[in-house]
Amino acid sequence: MRAIVTLALVLLVLPAVPVAAQNMGFLGNSPAAYFTADDVKLFQDTGRAALETLNPGKVAKWENPTTGARGKIKVLAAFASQDGRTCKRVGIYNKARGVEGESKMTLCRTVDGHWQVDPDATPAGK
């Protein structure tokens, strides 16, 4: 589970970099361990689009027909955090080379406009 959470941080939040240049050994037998650079880009682009545009209940899907890797990101909830940030709770599912993985996490927009994983974010007023 920790590898999947870290994967989301690496793939959704950070800029795209070639897979070969990333130290991805911690991913073990997760789908992302088998992602090509094109898979990573498709996943990142889909994740960013989901965070920027989708409302709760909506799903963004990606697929690389060349490698067969695919996945989806579902926005589960959207809220303003106690400190005023825009946050979204998402469910992430990916599959590559027959290996499947899924997780849920909360990401919040930082003051510079990037999305950051924040497992402690709670809606304002709670």
Task: Describe this protein's structure.
The chain has 126 residues and is an alpha+beta fold. It has one domain. The protein contains two helices and five strands. The chain has a five-stranded antiparallel beta sheet. A hairpin with a 5-residue loop joins strand 4 and strand 5.
In short:
This protein has 126 residues and is an alpha+beta fold.
Number of helices: 2
Indicate the radius of gyration in whole angstroms: 14 Å
Categorize the overall geometry. Answer: elongated
Q: Please count the beta strands (DSSP E, at least 2 residues each).
A: 5
Q: Please report the distance between the alpha carbons of the first and last residues.
A: 27 Å
Overall mean confidence score, pLDDT:
84
User: Can you write the helix and strand succession as a string?
Assistant: HHEEEEE
Strand content: 25-35%
> In terms of structural class, how would the helical and strand content be classed?
alpha+beta
Helical proportion? 10-25%
Give a quick account of the main beta sheet: strands, pairing sense, barrel closure. Answer: 5 strands, antiparallel
Order of neighbouring strands in the sheet with most strands:
1-2-3-4-5
Low-confidence stretches: 1-10, 14-26
What number of domains?
1
